[in-house]
Task: inverse folding
């Protein structure tokens, strides 16, 4: 991934773009409207040496996937590996695991940090005066939440990284259909990012 300031992007710079093509996924996220964007390339076949630090190589890869732009500045580059992991045990003696130490999911859907925060908030309410039964109930609840998020993000990642043309055609037709109605859009958003939390009374 890289934070790039670019000129003349070929796709609307105010929108999020996700392109799931045969060579892997491209995501372009506008950061501000002064040309900065976070560009994320998923490389199913791994990275050639040095490519991750080279914004020009990244933009050349992005161009093959349908997004062209000329780089004015690069603030930051990094790499990450898409994981799907759940710790076998969430506790050892006086240590309780929360956050990415307990579970790691694909970043598609932006769920990892949210899941870790739910661990922390629920633990803060469960801990005072909690006996073994209370902590066991907390662990069961957190494991169920983590399994739901892992299943959802794994499915979304598989769908976005399909490489066979017929499978991508089915996905894109289904997506276009779902995006035409507000119920379809809500369903899709919830399928990726989880249900919207209930509004709190003011
Ligand atoms: C590309 C990408 C995009 C993402 N986007 C989103 C998003 O949009 N929304 C979302 O909710 N989540 C997102 N996530 C997931 C999110 O970043 C993680 O779930 C979150 O950062 C986990 O927080 P954490 O505190 O549990 O662990 P970490 O952020 O990994 O923090 C653990 C810290 O412990 C330190 N540490 C490790 N070992 C030791 C040691 N032995 N001694 C001392 N310190 C140590 C590490 O250096 C690190 O600072 C994304 C992840 C990636 C990779």
Result:
């Amino acid at each position: 991934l890289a934070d790039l300031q670019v000129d003349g992007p070929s796709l609307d710079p105010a929108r999020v773009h996700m392109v799931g093509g045969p060579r892997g996924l491209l995501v372009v996220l506008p950061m501000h409207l002064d040309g900065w964007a976070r560009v994320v390339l998923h490389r199913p076949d791994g990275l050639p040496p040095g490519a991750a630090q080279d914004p020009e190589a990244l933009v050349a890869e992005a161009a093959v996937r349908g997004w062209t732009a000329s780089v004015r500045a690069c603030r930051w580059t990094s790499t990450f590996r898409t994981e799907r992991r759940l710790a076998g045990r969430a506790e050892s003696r006086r240590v309780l695991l929360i956050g990415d130490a307990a579970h790691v999911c694909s970043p598609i859907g932006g769920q990892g940090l949210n899941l870790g925060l739910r661990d922390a908030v629920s633990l803060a309410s469960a801990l005072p005066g909690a006996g073994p039964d209370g902590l066991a109930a907390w662990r069961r609840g957190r494991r169920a939440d983590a399994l739901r998020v892992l299943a959802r993000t794994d499915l979304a990642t598989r769908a976005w990284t399909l490489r066979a043309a017929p499978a991508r055609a089915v996905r894109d037709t289904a997506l276009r259909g779902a995006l035409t109605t507000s119920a379809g859009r809500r369903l899709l958003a919830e399928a990726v990012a989880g249900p919207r939390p209930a509004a709190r009374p003011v």
In short: The pocket of flavin-adenine dinucleotide is lined by residues 1, 80, 99-100, 107, 110-114, 116 (CB under 6 Å).
